[in-house]
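=== Structure Prediction Worksheet ===
Name of assembly: unnamed complex
Input type: mixed (protein and possibly other molecules)
Chain count: two
Listed entries:
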Amino acid sequence: MTIAIAHLGPTGTNAETAALAYASWLTKKKGQETLLSPYPSIAQTLRSVVHKKVDLAVVPVENSTEGSVAITLDTLWELDRLQIQQELVLPISHALLSHSKSLSQIKTVYSHPQALAQCQKWLEGFLPSVQLIPTNSTTEAVQQISQDPQAGAIAAPRASKLYDVPILAADINDYPDNCTRFWVMGLTPSTSGNRTSIAFSVPANVPGALVKPLQVFAQRGINLSRIESRPTKRSLGEYLFFLDLEASATETSTQEALAELSPYTEVLKIFGSYDVLPISTL
Amino acid sequence: MTIAIAHLGPTGTNAETAALAYASWLTKKKGQETLLSPYPSIAQTLRSVVHKKVDLAVVPVENSTEGSVAITLDTLWELDRLQIQQELVLPISHALLSHSKSLSQIKTVYSHPQALAQCQKWLEGFLPSVQLIPTNSTTEAVQQISQDPQAGAIAAPRASKLYDVPILAADINDYPDNCTRFWVMGLTPSTSGNRTSIAFSVPANVPGALVKPLQVFAQRGINLSRIESRPTKRSLGEYLFFLDLEASATETSTQEALAELSPYTEVLKIFGSYDVLPISTL
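=== Predicted Assembly ===
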C-alpha cells in the first residue's frame, strides 16, 4: 500500500524537503512506498488527513529563530482528532537566489515572511534599502523573480536547481543553528515515543491558574521542553497552552500527571507520544 | 514642546489609528501638541525612540485572534532600554475594499498576513478560490489594487475614505471581539500604573524551571494576565518568557516578588508599570 503524504507546496519548499526526507526514511526503514501531495496552505494540508484524502501530513511547528507556527497550533486545536506520529528536525539554510551578478543591482527581495524574518539582520546589513515583498511560500518567491535581474528571492538552496536561478549569496540566515521542527500528523493513535504533546485551556484567569498544571509535571521530575500560549480567540486575555513533555504517555508517572492535570483544565487535548528524528541536510 | 510619535506607516494602518487616538488623548488631557511619524517597519519604529529621532513609539503587541506580535517582543528584548508608558486597546474591524461591484468578480485579495489570518474563515466561506497575496501593511494592499476591479484589499474602513476605494463587505473579521493591544514606548522610566510587564530567560532547561518564577507571583496572589514564550534564537528549545502582571511595581508585594524572582532567572528585564486606555472606534 502506498502512503500518501501531504505538505505545503509547491515543489521546492522546506516543508517538501521535510516530507521527502520522511518518505525516504519510511522507504529505507520499512520498505514503504510513498506519494507526496502538495497543498496550498498549512490548514488545508492538515485537513486533508481528517478528510482521508491522504494518510499523513508533514507540517512545520516551530522554528528556532522565529518561534511557533501559529496556524499549525490553531488548526490542530480545532481539528481535534490528529495525532503526532513523528517529529522531524530540519536544519534550515536560506540563500539569496537571483539572476543578478551583484548585490548592488538588487532592488527588491521576495520571500515568505518567516524566511524574511530569519534573514532580517543580513538584509539590513547587506541590502538596507531594498523593498521586501512577502509571498505565500519561498517557492512562490523564486517563481516571482523570473527573469528580473533587479530582484532576488530568499529560498532553500534546493530551489536554485529546481527553478534554474543562481545562488547569489548562501547561508544568509541570521543564526547559524536555524532549525525547524516538523510534525508528521495522522489519525493512528500515538502511544509510544519519548515526547508527549498536549494542549489545554484553563477554567478562569485567576492567580496561579497556570502554576497548578505546571506543578503537576515538576513534582514528578517531568521536564517541559516547551510551553506556548495561543489566544482562545474569544476575547483578549484568554489563552490555550501547548506543552511538550520530555516523557512518554506509556510511563505511569506521565499517566498520573495527566490524570491529576485534568481538573485544573477546561478542555485538555493529548496529541500523543512520538520520537524525534533529526534530518541531516539533503 | 511638540511630542513626536512614531508608528508603522504609511497612513491608513491600524497602528496609525492607535497613534492618532493616543495623540488626541494627549492633547485633550494634557494640552500637548503632537506630531506623527510613520516608519516602514515595527523594528525601525522602536529604534527611532532609542536613537532619539522621536519621543514615543506606538507598536502592536498582541491581537485577540492572532496572538503576539513576535517582532515587537523580540525588538523590545534586544533594545533593552524602552519602557511602556501606556497600553491602548483598539477594536479592529476589517473590511474588504474593492472597485468591483460584487464578490463573484474578485480573483485576488491583498492584505497584511495578520489581517488575512484574522479573516481566514470569512475568506474560505465567501471567496474560497481567490488568490491571497500578502503585503507589508493593510495600506499597501489598498495601494496595490488601484483600479483593478478583479482585486480586493482587506483594510480598516478608514482606508476606504483615505484612498477612495469603496467598501464591498464590512466587518469581515472571523471573531467579533477582534482587538489589538498597542504599547506606547518611551525612554522615561515607568513606575506607576496597574499593569507591569517583564521578560526573562531561565538558566537551564530543567524540570520546573518555569514553575519557580510563576510560584513567586501565585504565592502573593498576583495574577498573570499573559505568559508568552519566544525562542532565544541560540538553539531550538531555549526560550525567553514575557509576563504581564496585574500589579504595580510601586506595590511592596510586587517588589518582593521581583526580588525573589531574580535568582531563578538568567537575564531579567522590567519594562515598567502602566495603565490601560481602551479606545472606542474612531
